[in-house]
Amino acid sequence: MLDSKCVFCRITLRDLPSCIIAQNEKAIAFLDAFPLAKGHTLVIPKNHFSKIQNMSEQYESALFHLMHQLVDPIEKAAHVNSSTIAIHNGKEAGQEIDHVHIHIVPRTVHDGAGPIHSMFVKRPYVSAADLEQMASEIRAEL
What we know:
By secondary structure, this protein is an alpha+beta fold. Helix content is 30%, strand content 18%. The chain has a single domain (7-141), classed as HIT family, subunit A (2-Layer Sandwich). A hairpin with a 3-residue loop joins strand 1 (20-23) and strand 2.
C-alpha cells in the first residue's frame, strides 16, 4: 500500500526523480536530496509505514538487509571509515517525512556532528531504581 501524497511513496512509484542506488523486493535506497554529507543515503520500505512497529517482519528484514548491504560501499565511496545510521521513529523524534526511513550518513572526525548524546541539551536524571522500573514496564508490554 502506497500513499500518493507521501514523497517517499512517490519516489518508489518513480513519480519523483531520485538517485536510486539499490533495491530489493520490499526496500529501496537512494541518495538524500538534502544531504548532511556526501553519500548520505536513505533506505525505505516500498510500502508506506509511518513507524517501525507498523512494519511486517518481511519488510523489516528487507529494509535492514538492504541497509546492511550498503553501509560498507557507501563508506568506501565517501572515503570515510565511519557512518551514523539513524531512524527517527515518529514526529516527536524528529521524523520529518511520515514514512519509515533509515539514514546512512558518512562521518568524519571533523564534520561538526557528534554522538547521539550531543543531540539532547535537556537530559533527565535517572536513578538505578528508575531504570529498573522502566525495564519492568517495558517487559510487561512484551
